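Review session, final week

We close the course with one last complete record, chosen because it touches almost every idea we covered. It is Helicase XPB/Ssl2 N-terminal domain-containing protein, a protein from Ammoniphilus oxalaticus with 609 residues. Go through it on your own first, then we will talk.
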Amino acid sequence: MKFAEVLKQLSERVIQSICHHHQQTDTTLHFLLDSDWNNAYWAKMSEDERIVIEYFLREKGNDLLTYREIEQASLPLGAVRFRIALTKLRRAGLIFTLRRLWGEQAYVMSEEQIDLFRRKSVSISTEWKSKQRLSGHLSYHILDDLLQVLNVVRKTAIGFSKRGTLHKRTVSALFHGTNITEQLLAPFADELEQQYPFALHEAIALDLLVEQGLLQKQGENVVIGAVDEWVIGKDAELSRWLLAELLKKAKFEPNLEMFYTLIQRLDSDETYRLDAILDSMNSFGPDRQTALEKCIQPLTALGLMESNIEEGVTLFKWRTYRDHEAIPLYIQPNFELMVPAFAPFRLKWKLLQIAELQTSEEMWVFKMSKESVQAAFESGKTAVQLIAWLQQVSAVPIPENVRSAVEQWEQSVVQASFWDVRLLRLTDATLATELKQIEPIASLLYEQIGERDFIVRVENAALLGEELEKRGYAIGPIVNLLEQPTLSDRVTADPILPLFKNKVVELDYQVESVFPDLDDALPGLRDLPRMWLSNYAHYHGSTLRKLIQQAIDLGLELKLEADGNDHRLQPARLTNQHGFWKLVARKEDKAEAEYGLEEIGRIQIISPL
């Protein structure tokens, strides 16, 4: 649960109480997410509070801890000490109270706070690094396949079924020829994916594209979204986005979550030893087989990581991206375009839009044709622009036959084209003649059309405006014809693509806006006579039995005098043997001991607060 989600459900009174508890004035509570503040507060925590935090890290992660689990589960502390430490952490704003729809209480740490404490629990060590180096340069990356899926959608009209989703056959065709398989994505699937009408890997991959807005609904068809803008980012950033999205879908055990959190902080230029990291994590980390099968191997298969096992030693390294380098493009006279497999995703996407992909191994080979460039010309690109871009990225001069063919293809494909220009409209023809006589203005007028209209280049429009204003000509606002009402209804893209009918999950809980009293940690504690908690004294037989039974019922420890010594015990039960009452209790070494009530001298219930 995100910290912001929790915060918006807390009342002002609770927020003020948390601030007062820490002597802070920041009512955004952002100090709770500050690593320095958390480190300082950790140093002030009691040992029990630290054990509760570590229990969340090891056993719960981002999951809920229910009240029933506290009563029934095997906790690292006794239930009483655990509840008290938990209540102190709730008062500190480190753990929050939820209320299930059927009334049960549950407790949770925000995702950001879990991450902060995980970072504190295991520090990155230089001893994890290996002197043996892995290259980090790989040929396959799942984003290559996702770009090919998007390219199929770009070229093909994909309509909805009568039920408002996609046909299974259509979806299967989208992924045909890619390496995206169920085995590849299964480690990141949760129960929700199983409800989709498609194969597991198809559902996960489509979900990624839909959530990012790369697939959208337009009328009765599916179209691509702003892929050009998305793919312009750095390859490393796109890969981090992909991993983050996959991890959101996964349902891992907390120790595996912690392992993922840790390795994402590692330097991408270094090679690391898996066993060294797991040894440092101790009980916070997964076992070696789990780390391999659910992390290292899947990430390697996705192309996000390189790994190697030699003589039982597992080495791994994050993929190294080279999108900051000049990647060579080779243009052949036979219209083939070749780039290495590690070329940036943005370069591959541009090539997919003007050529057909032939092979995608160590070298990606594309083939240009009249048909492959048609969409580019129809979208407004010119042969001049296309040739200029190819020359810019090519490692060799463009063969003359390729240049000539592209120019000819444009002429045969494009019979009309749109120019991106500004239209300058004047009030009358006399003013138009006047402006043509002023050299600084005339030089910015591209072409006159009609008696009072001029075409102006977009890049010159602002300068022309300044020249006109400088000479006292009044200029009106820019008129956007796209915003003017027209007789035709325009079909616009709908970002909501209803592919998955079971996508929306209703939460069965909400944050309970409450600042707990310490007494609430142990129901019944406030009903005990105060002297039983504060006085180490003798009691009459019947009162003694009541005192001991109350301590048993509440799970509280006793301090009692017997055999001339003081003992600290955890009472277990009272027994009556032939009219004689006995207390059975566990000593500090966990061994059981019996005490006849007539043997007990002074006694006191130890307050847990």
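Two points worth writing down before the exam:
The chain has five domains: 3-121, 125-321, 333-411, 421-483, 525-605.
The chain has a mean pLDDT of 85.
Good luck, everyone.
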